[in-house]
Amino acid sequence: MTETSPAEPEVIIPNLNRRFSGITSTILQVVPHQRRVLRMATVGYPLACDLPRLGWSELIRATRRAPSNRASVVFHARRNIEMLAGLVLKRLLGCRLHLVFTSTAQRRLSAWTHFLSGQMDTLVSTSPRAASFMRRPPEAIIPHGVNVAAYQPAPDRRQAWREGGLPGERGIGIFGRVRPQKGSRDFVEALCEVLPHHPGWTAVIIGQITPNHQAFARELKHHIRACGLEERFCWLGQVPFEEIPRWFRRMSLVVCASHNEGFGLTCLEAMASGVPVVATRAGAWDVIVREGVEGYLAEPANRASLAAAIARALREGNLEAMGLAARQRVLAEYTSEKEAAALVALYRRCLGAAV
User: Fold this and answer.
1) Phi, psi of 121 (to 5 degrees)
2) pLDDT tens sequence across 82-94
3) I need a labelling partner for 181 at 20 to 30 A (CA). Which of 54, 62, 71, 228 fits?
4) pLDDT by residue (tens digit) across 16-64?
5) All residues at 6 or more sequence positions from 73 whose CB lies less than 8 Å from its CB, including other chains
6) Residue 251's closest CA among 146, 342, 160?
7) What does DSSP assign to residue 232?
8) What is the pTM assigned to this prediction?
């Protein structure tokens, strides 16, 4: 199918956060499917895809002259700052926008978030649990999905591990920015307890260390040195987005240790790669992961619980069979194609077009 032109955009995807995040990953995985059937553009910081990018003046001109045969142009916000930008464009500058907001947070929302979301034309949530924190019920619940073509199992995981050039025979990884909320300390302390009993396994930490968390990372490295396990841990830092699927394929187990999450794509990316997971009961992970089938669950912010779940996976788990089950789970329920199709149907309802 030929991709449509963004000359008169039907959907605007704002990206008003410079840093790569789970929201950025979500956008990058669903947009390629959506733009095959809709005219789309982005505004704000560049995205690592070929979605056309508009300047603010271009956006204002394009949305002021939106074709009269449809209600408006969809502006899909996923952050508070993007909701605010949409309101300014619509209410103060007269842009013909239909404002959509997706809420993933599974925590008490601020009064500011409630105010902004109350001004939106359409609300979306990614799970019933996240929806329960919204003052106004969402019009749709659309779970996140992942690109199962990009995230797929390695033909030979042992060979893929060797190609990564890391020590040891198998990898157990954690993906995401290094900070307390992501469970980085829990992962390090749990692995310092578990690794001495499992020769051949290497802990791999993939994710950015921001300046305000440099001291935190140094504390973790000091703890590893004190345990005499420096050679069993590899810190890769932030890797390019296009390289992330390759690193998932190299792992034999992935740990998702966050204290809280909105939805949590990391778990799905690992599972789509045919890798079993140990995940905390954060975000949607305890809905996605079935205990002993695709992985094991642990309590958030609980190092002992996480260590016990990892030890159980390494001791009892049939990791190859669990990885196959994990891949099948994602194919059945959590693909980016399914998420994109549901959002396209929502956009078309917003635009007043036949679905």
Assistant:
1) -80, -35
2) 999 999 999 999 9
3) 228
4) 998 888 888 889 889 999 999 999 999 999 888 888 999 999 999 888 8
5) 9, 10, 11, 12, 62, 63, 66, 95, 96, 97, 98
6) 160
7) G
8) 0.82
Q: How far apart are CA 293 and CA 104, in angstroms?
A: 26
Contacts for 87-96: CB closer than 8 Å, 24+ residues apart: 87/116, 87/119, 89/59, 89/60, 89/63, 93/60, 93/64, 94/64, 95/59, 95/60, 95/63, 95/64, 96/63, 96/64, 96/66, 96/71, 96/72
Q: How far apart are CA 232 and CA 195, in angstroms?
A: 8
User: Residue 132 class from Cβ within 10 Å (0-12 exposed, 13-18 middle, 19+ buried)?
Assistant: exposed
Strand order in the sheet with 122-125: 53-54, 40-44, 11-15, 73-77, 97-103, 122-125, 140-141
Domains of the chain and CATH, by start: 11-145+336-351 (3.40.50.2000), 157-333 (3.40.50.2000)
Structure tokens at 200: 């051949």
Rounded to whole angstroms, the Cα distance separating 189 from 38 reads: 47
pLDDT digits (tens, 9 = 90+) for 111-168: 999 999 999 999 999 988 899 999 999 999 999 999 999 999 999 999 999 999 999 9
**Taking the CA of residue 333 as centre, how many other CA atoms within 13 Å lie in the half-sphere pointing to its CB?**
14
Quickly count: other Cβ atoms within 10 Å of residue 21's Cβ. 17
| Cβ within 8 Å of residue 229, ≥6 positions away | 191, 192, 195, 196
